[in-house]
Fold these 3 entries.
Entry 1:
Amino acid sequence: MQVALVDLLRSFNIFPSGVVAHSSGEIAAGYCAGFLSRESAWKLAYYRGAMVAPLMRSKQNTGTKDFGTMMSVGLSEANAQAYLNELKKDFGYAAVVVACMNSPKNVTLSGNEIQINYLKARLDNEGIFARKLQVPAAYHSPQMNEVAAEYLACIQELEPGRLPPGAPVTIMISSITGERATPGELCNPEYWAKNMVSPVRFSQALSKLCTQSTKDQKGGIDGSHGNTVQVHDLLEVGPHSTLQGAVRDILKEVGKDKKTTYNSILVRNNSALQTTMEVAGQLHCTGYPLDVAKVNSRGIGDFKSSVVLTDLPEYPFNHSQSYWHESRFSGTGYRFRKFPRLDLLGTPAWDWNPLEAKWRNIIKVSEVPWIEDHKV
């Protein structure tokens, strides 16, 4: 679905300057950046689910809680780790890890369900946000090592992608390393095996994308060698605005919450048509060069068939009263002045009084080049 949404946005002429993603969302992000082909993205997503399916069935068949699960917790990474250290003392071992650093104030824990339930009860008693996720496997934990090797064997021969002609170069910040990713890195199957078992550093990746400086940017004529981008608007591409809270906390942490907007192309329980059109409208009003005709079309390739309604009833406009307002610098005294601008005096002031003559002038070397030699 994310790949399809990327293609839809491309048809609107909406292309990102940079992408970051959370967990398996990196598959669609790699496709969006042009690092992976569409078929390779599908391949990665399919086998990722196929490898985890046996773990899910095993848990459902046995009904045991020895299998893994995940839980979102309203703690920083350091504070969450302190609870895990105490968990080790209580059980003699810790089968739970910090799987995702979602924001400075939120992490996702992953591991043994019995220990997850134990932690949840303790956090609830202390008034700390803790919500179990509806997932039957412990992603980004040692449990994934059981299927990582088989997953790696199934995803060989990944193909690089290609951006449409005229599309801007897109950079990608990896949520595995927190650093900029390369096309060669994403075409390496080992990267995606690491994606399944490694912690997700989403907070670090988004912070880096939003706080890059252009001081050291070096780009060619087409900008293909640029190392940094300036991000002003964030658009989440997925089934829901899942990361809205995390994004808000991250932007506030780096001081970009007042300068960066956030939108989600889809929102749960809302019309997908409405949310998509709202995103397109907001980007258009911001100044992005999207194709409005295609946004308003009724289907793929159907935008040329749109017709204009010419039989609407005429509207009786009332022109008896004028609401024209002019500033003091563009009043009738300026627009209907009798004399042109003079280099030395400029133009008569807007409130011209012959008994107290005043002129307004802005001297520019570009307009009066000879003044460049007159320096005091």
Entry 2:
Amino acid sequence: MVDSSLDDGYVQALAALGTVRSYAKNTILIQEGDKSDQLYVVLSGKLKVYLADSEGKEIIVDMLGPGQYFGEMALEGEPRSASVMTLEPAKLSIVEREQFKRFLADNPDAAYALIVTLIRRARNLTRAVGDLALLDVYGRVARLLLDNAREDNGKLVVMDRMTQQEIAKRVGASREMVWRILDDLRQGEYIAVQDGRIVIRQQLPKRW
């Protein structure tokens, strides 16, 4: 997940400019290719950013949660490059493009932080493309787990509760392949599942 570079004060100030709306689970907020001039600040809930083809096959590009924002490319005025859907009930503040432009003009530091966010997202996307091209499925699964793991009470825990299907969509693989990899890692005592979260118990092997 890509962290927002705006500090909490700026995020709250930006959210205060918009209209707050609530959405049910599995609501598509943005459709790839849509024309839109709005930015969204996530106040609560969990969302996915994804690409999908005409047959319904999809790959998850990013996951978003409270305090993060998306849709900042509305400043450019081009069609949306990805779709966004809620994974659970969510509340968002919707900021219009002109409001967003005024906010950046009035807050130069926030404008700089936004540029940093865009650079980080571009860097992460570049790495994701490289992973798809250069890493096998195991390598992509291991990278995803490690990128999302944080130390919690002395344990290395993958903070997001990710289903096997979600992992598969994030690494561009089948659910069956992901299940085999996770099952082997469990049997080898590299990982364990506690309270719905994956715990990395020891250094993951370089190859599967």
Entry 3:
Amino acid sequence: MSGTLRQCFIESPIGELTLIASEVGLRRISWPHDCVAEGEHIMFDEAHPILAAASKQLQEYFAGDRRDFTIPLDLEGTDFQRAAWLALADVPYGETASYGEQAERIGRPRASRAVGAANGKNPVPIVLPCHRIVGADGSLTGFAGGLEMKERLLAHERAQQSLDI
């Protein structure tokens, strides 16, 4: 997992996103207000194959033409965090699940708070859709991109679903 990271920027309906990849896979999607960590060696390279694929798939998502992502990922985190993050991909497009349901999915039914903490550190939002996780009562809670961004992403997916009918 060492080596130079590559990055590119894409414009989206929710602002400019920064994509960062290793040679293994997509490592991070940063929101417009996020900063790059100090000390990371990152080169701009929009032609990098993983970044090119991620850019294309995200553009398809925002155009309403993609619901699932097939980008290779290079997730750095604890085993628990990676399990929580990967379980996000099981929540269907346009639907929501609670933190408790996500905790049950990973075999840790009493770990809903820990799942919430892990989701707050999800390095690849949208691709691993933490915006689809809501409070037990269905309320929008915690989201690194902000609750307004969470609502916008959910509204985008629901609007696309209504076009399918």
